[in-house]
Amino acid sequence: MNFTNFIHKNADTFLKKPALGFKKDNEWKEINWSMLRTLVYKTANALRNAGIKENDKVAIYSENCAEWICFDLAVMALGAITVPIYATNTAEQASYILDDSEAKIILTGNQEQYDAAFEIIQNSQYLEKIIVIKKSVWIKKENSEYLENFIKPAQSNFAIVEKSSDDVATLIYTSGTTGVPKGVMLTHGNFQKCIEAHFEFFQFKNFVNEHSLAFLPLTHVFERSWTLLCLYGGAKVSFLENPKLIAHALVEVKPSLMCSVPRFYQKIYGGIQEMVATSSPAKKKIFSWAISVGKEVAERKRNQQSLPFILGFKNKIADAMVFGKIKKKLGGNLWFMPCGGASISEEVTRFFDAMGIHITVGYGLTETTATLTAFPFTQYEHGSAGKPLGNTQIKIGENDEILAKGDGIMKGYYKKPEETAKVFTEEGWFKTGDAGKFDAAGNLYITDRIKDLMKTSNGKYIAPQPIENLLSNNNLVQQVMLIAEGKPFVTALIVPNFEFLQEKLKEMKIPFTHWNEIVEMPEIKELYKTTLDEIQHQLPGVEKVKKFTLMPSEFEISTGEITPTLKIKRNIVLQKYQSLIDAMYV
After folding, report:
1. Which of 164, 189, 430, 470 has the smallest C-beta neighbourhood within 10 Å, fewest atoms?
2. CB burial readout 262-286, b (16+ within 10 A) else e
3. Closest C-alpha among 178, 246, 184, 250 to residue 216
4. Has residue 527 got a pLDDT over 90?
5. Which CATH number fits domain 3-163+204-253: 2.60.410.10, 3.30.70.2740, 3.90.1570.10, 3.40.50.12780?
6. Homologous superfamily of the 262-333+335-450 domain (CATH)
7. For residues 253, 258, 262 and 265, what is the CA-based torsion angle, rounded to 10 degrees?
């Protein structure tokens, strides 16, 4: 079996139906299934003509685009192995991955990525050729070629190379919050069986009519697996190159489903809460009524109970007066949104449910081909990570560690047998590194990353993620990192939501100077202190943030402070801002 066999079947079945959407010359365009098959097959033949054989490694170093997924499918159809590199990775990071994976060809997107690849190829004993997506990129003739020219002479007839379910399809290098990146070996069987398990679990109806928007990095296992799942089921996928333009893209593309990370939902939730807080008493009353109606409807659906006529009628009014306006800003068609990558608070999922947008919270890792557990459409528990998919088995081990077995578990870390052995028990259970527990109904609850658990100098354990989530739900907060390990009390580094704070400055009649000065102003510190006190009033005293420092700029991927999926690299941040942290304990 080769996972990409679905391309041929779908192209025969759907032919002229749109498969991929993309923006070109400021206009959204699309290609149908027949064209997609031709592009994938021509690309696979071009790669074969360039000397790529089964099990050779081919890298992709680009932002999201239709060419990214076409190239990925072509590499796997050829029986070769795709090696994605985050578009935001530095030349040094990309060089490590290319060297470790022994990639022979690399696909690049913009000028910066091409320049990095060209610098790498000069000293690489493996990399032979650079292919460039954008014609606007200036390239040197040596070892470089535009993608269009690369595939043009290739034939469109191609026989997908048969593989076994245990054959490696991709190497995904974990960005990781600690340590050297490791190449996770995911197989054709991992993709095939995991995607089949999702369709069985959710029992999608009319999935071919769905439309997904890919805006998280395709390099990450979550977006890539979701995009492949959508294409496997015959749905259309549109690609957003610049994730910062998501608000515009949602209105333009009008997707029906889309995967994202908690921060996306938290920002929407925080923005709406702030808007309501500054509304007239009448509007506040209408919003409160609409939410209570929406939550009652959502609870009935969750518990598979019938909807009384009057409640359904009220919900239509709530939708017309409140929810519809919010949903219109999200494109108007969204109804299903998988969420992963970090924990998300119950109040956010309940809020979206009330609006009629089902956030399916899931849990998984790169090493497990993303999803291990997820919310079903009914009988799920808010605050949990859902129930196991397919043949996934989960048990709780020592230190409450979540252990897993099943079709999604990786083959191992590439060229790292010792590292691979460390993450498996003698009985073959994969050690996730996360702590968790089950409830009586079999729902999994993630309590925290085992490595992230903090022990104060008073011997109290603090789980930072739930507290960080609570703070991040507020529109004043963009990013937050708790500090408590070995300390007498909890402190935090807080990155403000600068866009929102700028509006607050106008309200407070404070002239903008520079963020370095603004975050030090007593009025701004008092604003955040008051906000934190309100948010934390229900927390036990030992878990409350007693002191905080406002940061003048965001934690950045380029500086290594956060991963490409926006997880804070605690060790890096602790080391870099040690003096600021020390000052909070004086």
Report:
1. 164
2. bbbbbbbbbbbebeeeeeeeeeeeb
3. 246
4. yes
5. 3.40.50.12780
6. ANL, N-terminal domain (3.40.50.12780)
7. 50
Assign residue 179 a region (left: φ > 0; alpha: ψ between -120 and 50; beta: otherwise): left
Find the mean pLDDT for residues 100-128. Answer: 97
**What mean pLDDT is reported for the chain?**
94
C-alpha closest to that of 161 among 275, 297, 372, 7: 7
Question: pTM for the full model?
Answer: 0.87
pLDDT digits (tens, 9 = 90+) for 333-346: 999 999 987 778 89
Within 10 angstroms of residue 399's Cβ, the number of other Cβ atoms is 8
Q: How far apart are CA 553 and CA 327, in angstroms?
A: 31
Separation CA 269–CA 13 (nearest Å): 40
Contact 234, 13 (CB under 8 A): yes
Packing angle between helix 33-49 and helix 66-77, nearest 10 degrees?
A: 60
**Cross-strand partners of 187:** 168
Element (H, E) at 31: strand 27-32
Q: Which residues lie below 8 Å from residue 126, measured CB to CB, with a gap of 6+? A: 98, 99, 102, 103, 104
**Cα(394)–Cα(309) distance, integer angstroms:** 41
| Tally of CB atoms within 10 A around 115 | 16
Burial class for 106, CB neighbours closer than 10 Å (0-12, 13-18, 19+) = buried
Q: Burial-class residue 299 by CB neighbours within 10 Å (0-12, 13-18, 19+).
A: middle
Q: Is the pLDDT of residue 178 over 70?
A: no
Burial class of residue 431, CB neighbours in 10 A (0-12, 13-18, 19+):
middle
DSSP assignments along 526-580, one per residue: HHHHHHHHHHTTTS-GGGSEEEEEE-SS---TTTTSB-TT--B-HHHHHHHTHHH
pLDDT of residue 179: 63
Helix (H) or strand (E) holding 149: helix 147-151
> With 0-12 CB in 10 A as exposed, 13-18 as middle and 19+ as buried, what is 567?
middle
CA 442 to chain centre: 25
Instruction: Give me 306's structure tokens.
Output: 């019938």
Report the alpha-carbon angle 543-545-546, nearest 5: 115
